[in-house]
Amino acid sequence: MPRDDGWLASRWNRLSGPRRIGGVDLARGLAVLGMFAAHLLWITGSFDWSRPDTWITVVEGRSSILFATLAGVSIGLMTGGRSPLPAARMTTARGRLAVRAGLLWVLGILLIATGVPVYVILPAYALMFLLALPLTSLPARVLLPLAAALAVVMPFVQVFLDALPLWTSAAGYPVSMALGWHYPFTTWIAFVVAGLGAARAGVTRLKVQVWLVTVGALLAAVAYGADAVSGARPEAEAASFLGALWTARPHSTGLLEVVGSGGFALAVLGACLLLCRTVVRWIVLPLRAVGAMPLSAYTLQLVVWAAIAAVTLDRVGDLGGFRDLQPFWPLTIATVILCTVWALLIGRGPLETVLDAASRFAVPGDRRPGGQADERGRTSPADRLVE
């Protein structure tokens, strides 16, 4: 165990200290690496418990939904945790989150411009940040029912939104990229609100962690079970309103996917929080390091992808050609090692540092007594929970 003072100890405490919620970092690390797998591996067929070779399909759609749910948790922790910040400090926190959202959108557009053939989640992520800001003063008893209502109602609306003529017009593609419409914020905001509600309920509480696993697993079982029993098929989605609604297919934004994958995300979050109450917390430290700098890890993967594809393939957008290079394990292992070393020797991830500095520069904290920062620039405990 590191000493209580010194450079390395300060970095260790940033990653594993009492103000860091290891289970949230672990869940974020799994979400990031799950998106790596969805991007880089050939995934065919559907999930089947009896066939381990199909288990990798669990990353499709669910990794990005977990990422969105954890965005809500982060917003909740950054705005007070169980108790929303007082009005003045909440205004500051919201302003900083809005700045971060703007920067995330710009970064997302830049990543799209690399030509890497993936749907970049950051533009949608940024819009969901903005939509969540007015909700940050609400308690868990309001947020969680609101998330449930959105999860049930919005898939009905989404069917009509996805059928708008806009998407087949000349402007459809650039607009969909700018909005991150593969992850439609109109429905995916339900996941962010659920994560925000979990943070307000208190994700460090054992009761809440057990509740997340239990309720999340139940929602997933009901939705995926209904999908299996009803025999929903992809071809039915284009045939009727009911077909487009009643599906759990990844990235369909159907009712069964929203409920099932949303429940899956809550269950994974709860399981990670429970695991990090045990010695497993230290075993999974490299995954927690990835989760402590998810934006840097996600961005680095796409930039490295673009660079390798530009050198080795005829075009950057050749998805099949890049997957045939079998890049998943080299990129994943390198990312885990780099994040772990960076976290222990340097601290906060590079892009996380830039976003934090930019948001604090754009929206200075209240330096009066009880404000966001004191005269020496020390931030409140809530500010240090998630970085």
TrEMBL record:
The keyword NADP belongs to this UniProt entry's keyword annotation: no
InterPro entries found in the cross-reference section: Bact_Transport_Assoc, DUF418, HGSNAT_cat
Transmembrane segments: 21-45, 65-85, 97-113, 119-135, 142-161, 181-201, 208-226, 255-275, 287-308, 328-346
Region of interest: Disordered: 365-387
Residues in Heparan-alpha-glucosaminide N-acetyltransferase catalytic domain copies: 20-206
Domain of life: Bacteria
Alphabetized UniProt keyword annotations: Membrane, Transmembrane, Transmembrane helix
Biased composition (Basic and acidic residues): 365-378
Start and end residues of each DUF418 domain: 253-355
Name this protein carries in UniProt: Heparan-alpha-glucosaminide N-acetyltransferase domain-containing protein
Organism: Microbacterium psychrotolerans
